[in-house]
């Protein structure tokens, strides 16, 4: 492999100083990237080659590369080597000349997952080869009719597969006719809002709660009641006192978003009784209900819904990958005709090929095996991150590890700055924790950092936590 030219890194020997050798090398490479001596997408030498060039141990280079990767400057691609992150913006004044015009990266183009990023499954271990084979086979089955507009309600094979899966895994008894395929959870919630809500209708909403769902309901001109969440989940008694005639309640009962607590059985029964007594509706967002690591996973709220007042919402963003943009609703019979009519008026349906592949993935048993593998992986990554956080922060941090979910919540009670400031500092260093306080609607807010663990390998946990500590301190 060619060496980095000395002009790019000022490849003079590293000095014996108070700074460790790995930090000197880290700073030198970072400076070269910042000055565009090393360009986005450019491949770096192997650790062995660079160690020979600077006369240091290979472990020194490995540590420097790990620091740079943790801060988003470089990407490690296994056997393909290490490259300067293609997501770094080009500076027009220093862009190297090219015979071909280089198209700038669009602001919303895909980028690599960042450490602690929320809402992403383990993209590094998705079964891409299997998915590719299923996609190729599905494409060969596409007939002429399949190339026309798809059924707005969704591919029948997928709806059958979803109904069968929910009955076995989540305890939800439904027919395929009750399943409506959507373009993800947000699209499903928009459909529900159009179907059920008029301007000014009261809606119970968890406090804190999922901010994108809140925006969807606010766009529908709903009057949101922030309902406090404690260690038993949404405080149903509080909500009944404040807005007993609400039209809708939106809840995440398996693992509350973002606090991670489960809605207790007593409160589940209270919530269902309220909906039955007042002819209200409940949206159950079961976004990560499959990922439970201690004891048996909780059944869906919908499994207790004798009066058929719960609209069950699921998606494949957390279980497979968000780029699919596919989800589904299980709609009560009393709303089914209206919901199908509203879906028909809203879109021509979701892309057929993706639906075919997911239907095969479900019906052939790949989905169940994938989830089983991910549960074991996430449990290990969760434990590794929790251990690293305790080791680095000690008693300066408060953390409760919930039985399930895809993120941890760490509070720093002695921090002088808000969690929003801490999250911004981390973002500058290439990390992506989220501020808990940003999930609140009212002025009374808890503070902390939400730390996704699904894309942090066990062996990287300690390094990433140390990078977080440097960023926020």
Order of helices and strands: HHHHEEHHEHEHEEHEHEEEHHHEEHEEH
Reading side by side through the largest sheet, how are the strands ordered? 3-10-9-8-7-4-5-6
Strand content: 5-15%
- Report, as a whole number of angstroms, the end-to-end distance: 39 Å
Number of E-type strands: 14
General form = globular
| Top CATH class of the largest domain | Alpha Beta
- What level of helicity do the residues show? 25-40%
On the 0 to 100 scale, the average pLDDT is 88
- Give unreliable regions as ranges: 1-7, 92-109
Main sheet attributes: strand count, strand direction, barrel closure: 8 strands, mixed
**How does CATH name the architecture of the largest domain?**
3-Layer(aba) Sandwich
Task: Give the radius of gyration.
Answer: 25 Å
Number of domains: 3
The total count of helices amounts to 15
Reported by name, the CATH topology of the largest domain is: Aspartate Aminotransferase, domain 2
Structural class given helices, strands, pairing? alpha/beta
CATH 4th-level superfamily of the largest domain: Type I PLP-dependent aspartate aminotransferase-like (Major domain)
Characterize the structure shown.
With 473 residues, the chain is an alpha/beta fold. The chain has helices at 6-9, 21-34, 47-54, 58-70, 128-141, 156-169, 185-196, 211-219, 236-242, 265-278, 333-346, 352-363, 366-393, 419-428, 461-472, and strands spanning 74-76, 82-84, 179-182, 202-207, 223-230, 233-234, 248-251, 281-285, 310-315, 327-330, 398-399, 407-411, 434-435, 449-452. The chain folds into three domains: 6-94, Arc Repressor Mutant, subunit A; 128-368, Type I PLP-dependent aspartate aminotransferase-like (Major domain) (Aspartate Aminotransferase, domain 2), CATH 3.40.640; 372-472, Alpha-Beta Complex (Aspartate Aminotransferase, domain 1). It is 39% helix and 12% strand. The chain has an eight-stranded mixed sheet, with helices on both faces. Helix 2 packs across helix 4 (58-70). It is globular, with a radius of gyration of 25 Å. The chain starts with 5 loop residues before the first helix and ends with a helix.
């Amino acid at each position: 492999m060619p060496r980095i030219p000395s002009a790019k890194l000022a490849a003079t020997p590293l000095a014996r100083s108070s700074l460790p050798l790995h930090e000197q090398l880290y700073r030198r490479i970072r400076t070269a990237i910042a000055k565009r001596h090393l360009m986005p997408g450019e491949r770096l030498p192997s650790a062995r080659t660079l160690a020979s060039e600077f006369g240091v141990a290979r472990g020194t280079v490995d540590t420097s590369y790990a620091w740079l990767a943790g801060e988003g400057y470089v990407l490690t691609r296994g056997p393909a080597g290490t490259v300067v992150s293609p997501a770094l913006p080009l500076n027009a004044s220093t862009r190297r000349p090219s015979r071909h015009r280089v198209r700038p990266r669009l602001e919303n183009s895909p980028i690599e997952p960042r450490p602690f990023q929320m809402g992403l499954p383990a993209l590094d271990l998705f079964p891409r080869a299997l998915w590719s084979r299923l996609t190729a086979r599905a494409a060969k089955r596409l007939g002429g009719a399949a190339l026309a507009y798809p059924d707005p309600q969704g591919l029948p094979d997928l709806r059958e597969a979803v109904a069968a899966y929910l009955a076995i895994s989540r305890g939800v008894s439904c027919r395929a006719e009750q399943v409506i395929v959507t373009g993800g959870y947000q699209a499903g919630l928009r459909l529900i809002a159009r179907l059920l809500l008029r301007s000014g209708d009261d809606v119970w909403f968890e406090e804190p709660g999922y901010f994108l769902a809140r925006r969807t309901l606010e766009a529908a001109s709903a009057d949101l009641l922030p309902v406090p969440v404690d260690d038993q989940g949404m405080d149903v008694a509080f909500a009944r006192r404040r807005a007993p005639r609400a039209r809708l309640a939106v809840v995440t009962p398996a693992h509350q978003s973002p606090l991670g607590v489960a809605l207790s059985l007593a409160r589940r029964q209270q919530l269902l009784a309220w909906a039955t007594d007042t002819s209200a509706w409940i949206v159950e967002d079961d976004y990560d209900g499959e990922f439970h690591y201690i004891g048996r996973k909780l059944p869906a709220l919908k499994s207790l819904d004798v009066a058929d007042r719960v609209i069950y919402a699921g998606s494949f963003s957390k279980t497979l990958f968000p780029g699919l943009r596919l989800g589904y609703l299980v709609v009560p019979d009393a709303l089914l005709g209206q919901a199908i009519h509203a879906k028909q008026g809203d879109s021509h349906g979701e892309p057929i090929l993706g639906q075919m592949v997911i239907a095969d993935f479900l019906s052939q048993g790949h989905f169940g095996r994938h989830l089983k593998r991910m549960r074991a992986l996430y449990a290990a990554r969760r434990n590794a991150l929790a251990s690293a956080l305790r080791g680095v922060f000690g008693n300066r941090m408060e953390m409760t590890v919930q039985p399930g979910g895809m993120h941890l919540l760490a509070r720093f009670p002695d921090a002088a700055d808000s969690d929003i400031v801490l999250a911004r500092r981390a973002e500058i260093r290439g990390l992506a924790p989220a501020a808990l306080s940003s999930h609140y609607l009212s002025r009374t807010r808890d503070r902390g950092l939400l730390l996704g663990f699904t894309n942090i390998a066990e062996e990287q946990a300690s390094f990433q936590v140390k990078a977080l500590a440097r960023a926020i301190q």
